[in-house]
Q: What sequence folds into this?
């Protein structure tokens, strides 16, 4: 018998599901206020979608995707991120016909074959937003503001927002050449991955975790020195808008993010108390992705945050809500006749909007009261043959053990008062 979930996955058990519901509720409320609508895309897509969308040469495509051939001999991949899927849905369903700016959000499972560690699993859950159809840097500022408001709204403090511009195809070619010139005589010292990136995607070298600490990395050319006038203006306006909104940030010319589709704005939010895995959100602009996937040239910007890492941060700071009471009422029925009446009462109590449970095994009163405590019940309704004969039930307050007899005809009214 298989007794363990696959490595890198975990069960979300009843005692923690409430934390997830809490976080998702706050996300949905914030997205409602910012005007973002929920989208749910398939868990798997054609592999080519991610090869084209994310970019070959990235670690995600080359090393981390869960890819298989289905029975129709098609190459299928479990989604490693959701931007490419959202863009595919945007094009396939012609969402662009409804508005010049389409604002979407999603919450769901993603899959990457990575080394499991705290806050990073092989099946992980992401919340993200995508704003498609507008090039104004005000949309970039809105996306970043939403990300910061979300994290601050949970009570996280000392967040660090870093921003950069990764340019556009017009200015990135010059920067690519400068990087290759800089790293050419250092190739022997780079890791094997970066050696392969040298020709395919030299910007990825700056994103390498193995080589990032090497002394010469600090002297690598900065992309901000190569920006064209359009990208410079866009980046300057973004900084002005964030400043006017009271969003604190720092400039990080090394920030390139790990996916090929970014253009102009790139940003990352860190929560230092998490240590080495301190990045809790990140994103940027991807003006070329929709055209790359077969659509018309369309600007777009978005971000995503991993819910496991967010929950880890909230738990470390005791920012998650107290566990809610499992049930409002536990029905303790003693005897066969009482069990039948108890089941009827159970249904009535639930119909009245209260959470209720009862014992079905016919155990002793002591065992049933112990179970009521395990359910963290607020009150217990106790009935036996004697109570049935008199048409009453005993209602016990489980916190102070005070109890009273209540007519069965008045029981729901008493329970409803709390």
A:
């Amino acid at each position: 018998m298989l007794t363990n979930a696959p490595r890198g996955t975990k069960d979300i058990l009843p005692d923690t599901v409430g934390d997830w519901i809490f976080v998702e509720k706050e996300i949905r409320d914030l997205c409602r206020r910012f005007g973002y609508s929920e989208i749910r895309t398939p868990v798997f897509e054609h592999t080519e979608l991610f090869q084209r969308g994310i970019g070959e040469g990235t670690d995600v495509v080359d090393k981390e995707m869960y890819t298989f051939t289905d029975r129709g001999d098609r190459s299928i991949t479990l989604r490693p991120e959701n931007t490419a899927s959202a863009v595919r849905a945007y094009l396939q369903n012609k969402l662009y016909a409804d508005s010049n700016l389409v604002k979407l959000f999603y919450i769901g499972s993603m899959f990457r074959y990575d080394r499991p560690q705290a806050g990073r699993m092989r099946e992980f859950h992401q919340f993200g937003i995508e704003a498609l159809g507008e090039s104004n840097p005000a949309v970039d500022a809105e996306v970043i503001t939403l990300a910061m408001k979300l994290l601050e709204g949970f009570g996280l403090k000392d967040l660090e927002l870093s921003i950069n511009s990764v340019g556009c195809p017009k200015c990135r070619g010059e920067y690519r050449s400068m990087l290759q010139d800089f790293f050419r005589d250092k190739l022997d010292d780079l890791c094997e991955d970066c050696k392969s990136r040298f020709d395919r995607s030299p910007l990825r070298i700056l994103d390498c975790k193995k080589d990032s600490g090497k002394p010469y990395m600090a002297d690598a050319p900065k992309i901000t020195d190569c920006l064209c006038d359009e990208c410079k203006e866009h980046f300057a306006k973004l900084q002005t808008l964030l400043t006017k909104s009271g969003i604190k940030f720092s400039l990080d010319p090394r920030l390139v993010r790990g996916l090929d589709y970014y253009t102009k704005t790139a940003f990352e939010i860190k929560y230092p108390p998490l240590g080495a895995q301190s990045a809790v959100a990140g994103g940027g602009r991807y003006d070329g992705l929709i055209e790359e996937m077969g659509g018309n040239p369309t600007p777009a910007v978005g971000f995503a945050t991993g819910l496991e890492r967010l929950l880890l941060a909230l738990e470390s700071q005791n920012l998650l809500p107290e566990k809610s009471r499992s049930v409002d009422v536990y029905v303790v029925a003693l005897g066969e006749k009482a069990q039948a009446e108890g089941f009827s009462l159970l249904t009535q109590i639930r119909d009245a909007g209260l959470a209720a449970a009862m014992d079905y095994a016919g155990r002793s009163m002591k065992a049933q009261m112990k179970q009521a405590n395990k359910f963290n019940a607020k009150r217990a309704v106790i009935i036996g043959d004697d109570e049935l004969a008199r048409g009453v039930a005993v209602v016990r307050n489980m916190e102070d053990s005070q109890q009273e007899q209540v007519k069965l005809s008045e029981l729901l009214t008493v329970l409803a008062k709390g």
